[in-house]
Design brief:
By secondary structure, this protein is of the alpha+beta class. It has 24 helices and 82 strands. The strands form 24 sheets. Strands 47-57-49-50-51-55-54-52-53 form a nine-stranded mixed β-sheet. α11 crosses α12, α14 crosses α16 and α14 packs across α18. The radius of gyration is 59 Å and the shape is flat.
């Protein structure tokens, strides 16, 4: 407007002024005519000149105004204010509508709202809830507003009404309520109910959901009208038909319906009298009978037809009473019980009889007659009624008569009969009275009767049995037994005892212990009495009693148990480990009981756990109940208080001498009892004693032989039925809630396996597997003098035939446990049969090989070195205490007897003959290229012994480690000579021309430090074994020297086999390797040029001292020997001796290890080797050897446990290198302890180790912190850098207060240098104040973060 026409602006302003004072009309009339003005001067006709016409001004109205137009509607002649809406209200502020309805609503409002004026209201509606919708009506003549009821609820609708003049608000509350119920009904509407019987009916209705229900009148007692309109309950009051008006209501309204109910009583039901058959006697008062009934109460009683004369019937109670006065034949009478609900009825049968006979007397009831001699003539005397007739059953024997009119018995005994019970009746109209007589016509007395199996029988529960009687006397009429036979057995008519002995359940059927049963064989002439003893063994219930206190799985921790094999007829497994091996077994031994444990620590546990429960269960079982007297061998005296608390009497430190006064005895398998004491024990046990034994035999077997006959607990195993194996099992085993069963006991499994193998009765694969394992365990342990077992096993093996195995005919282990069992049986026979019964095994021809039948078998004498130290047991991978093999140079052909003569001085001294070199057992392999065991040892039990091996093999004399027998000679006859080279003794020409061609299939190359046992085929063309053994002597001596244990006390052996027990090679004595390696190993020049990492590695294992072999380094430190030999003997570069050692692989390993946080749990094999090699490359081999020597020679106690082992080695390698290696080793992850730090802190730190600045940041370490040259204003801070760390920036923080390890808490932190050198350092402080306390502390920072000295130092200025 500011930029418009000023004239128009003035005009508009003037217009506004005029309008405001009411002068607009004047202004318009005089300034804006619709037509041009006329000249009033009529007389002046002359046109006067005029000014040009000025256009009218433009009028613009404000937003809150509307325009006013002139006659010409295109011209705005003025503006007027728009009237805003006001005084708006609905006809009601709150309105209630019904769900689903559409309701009209009016309102009133002021303000401009005209389409003509182009001013209409703008309306905005906002409702608080979706219950209702509010909208303006579109009908011109209808209501203003429309309400649509959508859902039950309340909506507050706010309405904003506006035009250009302004706005106003109004609101309305819309309440949407449910529709009233409609078409209410109950179908059917009339019900006849029975008192006290449940009733339920639900209503039917349409539209709205009722919120309340009413009944008029109220429901009868027992019924209720529920909140959902259901009528439910059981009416308890009789009631005539009554109509109830039921009203269902909600806020929308209500609806009603009528419902009619009547309540009747329950009809009587089930009338009973004490008897429904009344047999009365004339003249005798009957016992009153009052009926019982069910259902509703009875209002009246009736009987039809009337009762016999003399009897009364109550119509009130239904009672029948009285005394019958006339005889009355049996008739039916109906008794009715009535009420409003109906009636019930019962039929009674009533008879009135005469009096019966009351007694019959023949003078006696037993008449024992003799055939052909006795006669009878007896008439009975009776009381009571008079008999009308007589009868007898069964008929009398031939020759005797019965008078049916008078009851007389008369006649002669003309027939042999047993005792016969005759019933005699005297009859009249009142009934019958009977008596009985026993009549026998006797024969001769029985004699000469016995039973198969003798007079004592032990039977298995739940297994059929037949024991036939043998009668050598007269015919037996009957048999009797007392006490009764065991449950399930019966005595047959011919005296046979047969049946299925029933096991006991501990509740209804008790244990049938050793019981004497008297059996009578009877006939008419008398009886023969015989005593038979029966015991029923219920192994299932035995097991149940052994778990009566909960057991389940038990863990005996550090115990290392032997297997306790249940070999007795009545022995069974109690505790089975994860590999189906019995760790605890139990059994019956004669009349006694025994429980055995594989370790003595399992026997007498105390406390409240499963182990203690097992101990007490076992004692209760062997003692056959508590309250008995228990003897405790001294090892178990600690169990005394527990047993006393259980009610036992206890004798401590008991011995076999105390058994006469004991019920139970607790002792060890590994004991020192004499043969006489063992006899006392077995006698006492078989007579009913209870015994618990515990102990292991595996450790005993290390220094003893023939556990089957010499181990103390096994000396009585044929009586106890429990065999202690030298094999060990798990200390954790399960004791099933139910018995393990026959498959887990030898005498249960063996018959099943025999039937399975011969095809008589096939087993499931699972059962066959379990049974075969059970039998195989016993096969591996029992010697051949357990003939009851071995007879069956040998027959089964013979019927099956040899199992042939070689590299072309491999055998798969564990594919069929029965096949594995047969393989084991054949192996055990080869290992246990006397030499003259050993046959050659057909597989021997494949390996070790055949001997020419025509090869010479000379008789030779061989000198044996009987001194053999062995190795200390800490050389744990070397089979350190194994017996030394002294070669004889002779070979036993397969299956041939070799005679050996030894001096008397060597008899039973522990030395033995070993036939065969390939001693690895392959039972742990998945497949076999040869039989699992092909060597056999023979004890030197006599000066002349015979030996043999089904596979053949080199003949050795084995000398126990630690022996010093000196030299002795033996004579060998019927063996062949081996290709044998002894370094420094064997002439090379003789070797080339003769020795290497000896016929034995196995050869040996022997030097001062090493022996190679190889197939002869590999040395037939070996010209210079001296070069080979020169190399191996150098190699072994170098390994010995590196270990530091010198002189090495034994000659190491390596045996090459077609298959070994583990890996490609493995350590031990002998060290085992595959034949595939032989060609290189025996080639001296090849070895000098190439070496053999694997051979060096395995020999390195033999040099590992256990406590110096750090955790995770079993396969690491043996590689030190490989590195040593590959570099110093073969001449290869360190990083070329093995592909894993190349430089890039080393870098990758180390960086990967440290990027993972150098976790010691990941420190092993090649990674760990780098730790040792870093030390070796800096300090050489000598410190490594010297550190090992401390373990051998100077440590009185070897470290035990991971932490102790790491720290012990860290100490000694530090001392031997002359440097504190703890920070280096800690960087590798060693858990360095403070005592280790203290032990080596006098040594300088290895500050040039290769980890620094590569993969590890080291924190610095300082010492000797002090303040010097203190004045009032200055002081010098001095310290020693012990370890300068890596990439360090140093500061000295100081001030008048101790800032601790927070840099910001110090007054000053001054830079003192970077990467300070090891040694003394100093830094001046200035600007100090007199008589002031000052504090300072060193700090440094590197990639690890900030390091702080271990404490704050303080000084005071003067």
């Amino acid at each position: 407007m500011a930029e418009g026409n000023p004239t128009i602006a003035i005009a508009v302003a003037t217009l506004l002024l005029l309008v405001s004072v009411g002068g607009a009309g004047y202004y318009f009339a005089n300034n804006f005519p619709d037509t041009k003005p006329q000249d009033n001067d009529e007389e002046n006709k002359t046109a006067e000149p005029t000014e040009p016409e000025t256009p009218p001004p433009v009028i613009e109205c404000a937003n809150n105004q509307r325009e006013i137009f002139g006659d010409n509607l295109s011209i705005v002649i003025g503006c007027v204010d728009i009237i805003p809406p006001s005084n708006a209200s609905f006809e009601s502020d709150s309105i209630q509508v019904t769900l689903g309805s559409i309701t009209e609503l009016n309102w009133s409002i002021d303000g401009d709202n005209s389409q003509e004026l182009e001013q209409t209201f703008e309306i905005q509606i906002n409702c608080s809830d979706s219950a209702a919708q509010l909208r303006q009506s579109q009908e011109q003549d209808g209501a203003d507003w429309i309400i649509t009821a959508i859902e039950i609820g309340t909506s507050i609708c706010d309405v904003n009404v506006s035009n250009h003049g302004g706005s106003t608000n109004l609101s309305i509350e819309i309440i949407v309520v449910d529709t009233a119920p409609f078409s209410l009904s109950y179908l059917p509407a009339t019900h006849v109910l029975t008192k006290d019987e449940p009733f339920t009916i639900f209503p039917y209705y349409e539209q709205g959901e009722p919120t309340s229900w009413e009944s008029n009148p109220p429901m009868p007692p027992g019924l209720e009208l529920r909140d959902d309109g259901a009528i439910i309950g059981a009416p308890n009051t009789l009631m005539p038909a009554t109509t109830y008006t039921i009203t269902a209501s909600n806020v929308g309204g209500s609806d009603s319906t009528n419902f009619t109910i009547s309540v009747h009583d329950q009809a009587p039901t089930l009338i009973t009298y004490l008897e429904d058959e009344l047999i009365l006697t004339i003249g005798e008062q009957m016992n009153d009978m009052i009926p019982n009934h069910g259902g509703g109460d009875v209002l009246g009683w009736e009987v039809d037809p009337p009762l016999p004369s003399g009897l009364d019937f109550s119509q009130v109670s239904g009672r029948i009473s009285g005394t019958p006065t006339t005889l009355y034949e049996r008739s039916s009478h109906i008794v009715y019980a009535n009420n409003s609900g109906g009636y019930a009825a019962i039929i009674l049968q009533i008879t009135v009889n005469d009096k019966t006979v009351e007694s019959i007397d023949y003078g006696s009831q037993d008449f024992d007659l003799v055939f052909g001699y006795s006669t009878l003539n007896i008439t009975p005397i009776t009381n009571g009624g008079n008999p009308v007739n007589w009868s007898i059953e069964p008929p009398l024997a031939l020759g005797l008569q019965f008078d049916l009119q008078f009851g007389t018995i008369y006649g002669d005994a003309d027939e042999i009969t047993p005792w016969v019970n005759h019933t005699i009746w005297a009859n009249n109209s009142g009934g019958s009275f009977s008596t009985w007589l026993n009549i026998r016509i006797a024969n001769m007395t029985p004699e000469n009767i016995s039973w198969l199996g003798g007079n004592e029988h032990v039977l298995a529960a739940n297994q059929s049995i037949t024991i036939s009687a043998i009668n050598g006397g007269p015919t037996i009429d009957s048999w009797e037994v007392s006490p009764p036979l065991p449950h399930g057995l019966s005595l047959g008519i011919d005296g046979t005892i047969a049946g299925l002995p029933i096991g006991r359940d501990g509740v209804n059927t008790s244990r049938h212990a050793w019981t004497i049963h008297t059996i009578w064989a009877n006939n008419s002439g008398g009886s023969l009495e015989t005593n038979l003893t029966f015991a029923i063994h219920d192994l299932a219930q035995d097991h149940n009693e052994l778990v009566k206190r909960p057991v389940g799985s038990v863990d005996f921790g550090g115990a290392w148990p032997s297997l306790i094999l249940p070999i007795g007829e009545w022995a069974f497994s109690l505790g089975i480990d994860w590999d189906d091996r019995p760790i605890s077994s139990a059994g019956h031994a004669g009349k006694g009981r025994i429980v055995g444990y594989g370790h003595e620590t399992m026997v007498a546990r105390t406390g409240n756990d499963a182990r203690a429960n097992l101990s007490l269960n076992a004692l209760d079982w062997v003692c056959d109940g508590n309250g008995k007297t228990v003897g405790l061998e001294s090892s178990f005296n600690g169990w005394q208080n527990t047993l006393l608390a259980e009610g036992y009497a206890v004798v401590t430190s008991a011995t076999p001498a105390d058994l006469a006064n004991l019920d139970c005895f607790v002792t060890e398998f590994w004991n020192s009892y004499s043969d006489a004491e063992n006899l006392v024990i077995t006698t006492w046990l078989e007579e009913g004693g209870g015994m618990i034994m515990g102990g292991h035999a595996w450790y005993w077997s290390y220094s003893n032989s023939d556990a089957a006959h010499n181990y103390p607990g096994n000396k009585i195993s044929k009586t106890t039925g429990l065999f202690v194996s030298t094999s060990s099992g798990s200390s954790t085993f399960g004791v099933n809630t139910n018995e393990w069963g026959d498959l887990y006991r030898l005498h249960g499994a063996l018959p099943l396996i025999v039937d399975h193998v011969d095809g008589t009765q096939m087993m499931t694969q699972n059962d066959a597997t379990i049974g075969a394992i059970t039998v195989s365990l016993c096969v591996s342990n029992l010697p051949l003098d357990y003939t009851g077992v071995w007879d069956s096993l040998r027959k089964m093996s013979n019927d099956t035939g040899w199992i042939h195995i070689d590299s072309n005919n491999q055998y798969t282990m564990n594919a069929d446990e029965v096949d594995d069992l047969i393989l084991n049986i054949q192996e055990q026979l080869m290992l246990k049969l006397p030499a003259d019964e050993v046959d050659s095994h057909p597989s021997h021809s494949s390996f070790p090989g055949q001997v020419n039948a025509t090869a010479p078998r000379p008789k030779i004498t061989v000198n044996i070195n009987g001194t053999f130290a062995g190795l200390p047991s800490q050389f744990g991978y070397a089979n350190a205490r194994a017996a030394g093999r002294m070669a004889t140079g002779m070979y036993a052909p397969a299956g041939e007897v070799v005679n050996i003569t030894i001096p008397q001085s060597m008899v039973n001294q522990g030395a033995a003959i070993l036939v065969g070199a390939h001693s690895d057992s392959l039972w742990g392999k998945s497949s076999l290229s040869r039989h699992p065991k092909i060597t056999r040892g023979w004890t030197m039990s006599n000066t002349s012994i015979q030996v043999a091996n089904a596979f053949g093999g080199p003949i050795y004399v084995t000398i126990p480690a630690g022996s010093a027998f000196g030299e002795f000679n033996i004579t060998i006859e019927n063996a062949v000579e081996m290709p044998q080279y002894i370094h420094g003794q064997t002439d090379i020409n003789n070797w080339q021309n003769t020795i290497r061609n000896n016929s034995a299939p196995i050869a040996e190359l022997e030097s001062e430090w090493f022996i190679l046992t190889v197939p002869s085929s590999y040395i037939r063309n070996l010209d210079y074994p001296n070069e080979t053994m020169d190399f191996w002597d150098d190699a072994l001596q170098m390994e010995h020297n590196l270990s530091g244990y010198t002189p090495w006390p034994r000659v190491e052996r390596s045996v090459f086999d077609v298959q070994i027990s583990a890996g490609w090679m493995h350590s031990g004595y002998p060290f085992m390797a595959h034949t595939a390696s032989v060609s290189g190993v025996v080639n001296g020049s090849y070895m000098r040029a190439n070496g053999d990492w694997g051979m060096f590695h395995e020999l390195g294992h033999n040099h590992q001292w256990m406590s110096s072999t750090l955790p995770g380094t079993t396969e690491t430190t043996c590689n030190l020997y490989s590195v040593k030999l590959m570099t110093d003997l073969v001449g290869k570069d360190l990083r070329a001796g093995h592909s894993a050692l190349n430089t890039q692989s080393m870098i990758n390993r180390v960086e990967t290890y440290f990027s993972g946080g150098s976790q010691i749990s990941q420190w092993s094999v090649w990674t760990a080797l780098e730790t040792y090699l870093q030390i070796q490359e800096e300090f050489g081999w000598e410190p490594i050897t010297a550190a090992y020597q401390e373990y051998y020679y100077n440590l009185t106690t070897q470290p035990s446990g991971d932490s102790a082992e790491f720290n012990e080695y860290a100490k000694w390698i530090s001392i031997k290198t002359g440097h504190n290696m703890t920070s280096f080793l800690a960087a590798w992850g060693f858990p360095i302890a403070e005592p280790t730090q203290n032990a080596v802190d006098h040594l300088p730190v290895w500050t040039t180790d290769p980890l620094r600045g590569w993969v590890n940041e080291y924190d610095p370490e300082t010492r000797n912190e002090m303040t010097s040259n203190i004045t009032t204003s200055k002081a010098d801070v001095d310290w020693m850098v012990y370890d300068n760390g890596t990439n360090t920036t140093w500061q000295l923080c100081w001030g008048v207060a101790d800032g601790g390890v927070v840099q910001g808490n110090w007054d000053f932190c001054e830079y003192v240098g970077s990467n300070l050198s090891v040694g003394g350092n100093s830094h001046p402080l200035s600007g100090l104040f007199p008589s002031t306390d000052y504090y300072w502390r060193l700090t440094a920072e590197n990639g690890n973060g900030r390091w702080w000295d271990d404490s704050t130092r303080q000084f005071t200025t003067p």
